[in-house]
Amino acid sequence: MLRHSFAALVLALSAAAVPAQAEWSEEELRELVLETIRSNPEIVMEAVAILQEREEAAQAEQAKDILSQQRVLLETDPNAPVLGNPDGDVTVIEFFDYNCPYCKRAGEEVTALIEEDSNVRIVYREWPILGEGSVVASRAALASRAQGKYEEFHTALMTAKGRLDEKSVFKIAKSAGLDVDQLRTDMEAPEIDEHIATSHRLAQSLGFSGTPSFVIGDELVPGMVQLPTLIDMVEAARDQS
What we know:
Helix content: 55-70%
CATH class of the largest domain: Alpha Beta
Distance between the termini: 41 Å
Structural class: alpha+beta
Strand order of the largest sheet: 1-3-2-4-5
CATH superfamily of the largest domain: Glutaredoxin
Mean pLDDT: 88
Low-confidence stretches: none
Shape: elongated
């Protein structure tokens, strides 16, 4: 299908050079395409660019539909941690991994956003994709909710130096005042599995391929975002609501 679309597009771009014909055989089409390319090599790049634009537009439209379908879950999942103003009028959803250096930088920007805008709520989607240490960190962070210390522990993990592993995660947990034995038990709770599985499913359906990634209003934002851009996007979402 893609080969025929590309061939048809190449021919369409060079219609003046191709004799009119109602239908081409496979062999005739192939020869016409090859001859057109030989005579007009720049058409190939033009056709590739057009096909890429069409594919990106189709993916964006699909992601928009999925965002519409999943918005309630993204914004109000009771199994997702919320920081900032729980009753804020704009919700920012962040997918992140504690071992992602860009997430650590983005975390500083999100913290600054909370300080800058008292009417924004942040929904965190723990999305551990960078190895076993990330999985341990996410499970421990989610489990810390049972002790009422998610915010403190999340911040401690985000600001920790070096790559997190099981040993460092529990060391940080102890320093944050958590009961580590209770934490280990709570890490096996089914809601921990559910949160991480939902994060994977949502990220995949929205077309995210790495961390950090954000959902702000109707915008899907993969990658690092600095405070001025976050503020602008939050204001745009606020104006749309």
